[in-house]
Amino acid sequence: PFDSAKTVFRGAAGMFYDNVFTNIADNLQASAPNAATPQIFNTTTGRGTASWSGQFSTLNTNPLATNSVTSVVPNLRNPYTLQYNLSIEQQLPAAMSLTASYIGTRGVHLYALDFINPTIPGTSTRYVSTARGSVAVHDNTGDSEYSGASLDLQRKFRANALMRVVYTYGKAMDDVSDDYTTGNYSAYPQV
Q1: How far is CA 139 from CA 60, 72, 73, 136, in A?
Q2: pLDDT tens digits for range 37-69
Q3: CA dist 54 → 49, 50, 61, 63, 152 (Å)
Q4: How far apart are CA 76 and CA 28, in angstroms?
Q5: How many CB atoms lie within 10 A of CB 65?
Q6: pTM of the predicted model, to two decimals?
Q7: How far is it, in rounded angstroms, from Cα 114 to Cα 101?
């Protein structure tokens, strides 16, 4: 079937780098020990807090051990994605063609948020170490992978009609879908 010049091979590969986005730096500067988080509570009934601006001088501006801390590993790297594909298309009789393809993507050194002092399961405010608040670290421990194969049978536009049937089988796995999910929950967990 390959000697009639009716077969096409296609392939491509690429490597794409991500950048360090400013939200990581913003979280660092807005957490302890760089920032304290004192609060003003309304101790009266009714709306608002009376003379709230006069309470600024009474606030403790020193960070507490129980304040939330966000940090970054010292060797944070730029994540990158590898993408690759390969396909073969064969022209068939009756203005039809069949294409078989493989598509792959791999995310390497993806951003993740690891909790050094996580909450106790079933609670939202009790931490493993009660002497500290939430301690989170941005790092590059995330990884993702997608592999897929597809078959595409199509009939070119002819006699005012066209036809296309495509079947795709794929598998996606990752261990961190979003850097800002609590606990790096994955949309596609590796089971």
Answers
A1: 31, 6, 6, 10
A2: 666 666 666 666 666 677 777 777 777 777 778
A3: 10, 9, 15, 21, 71
A4: 14
A5: 11
A6: 0.69
A7: 37
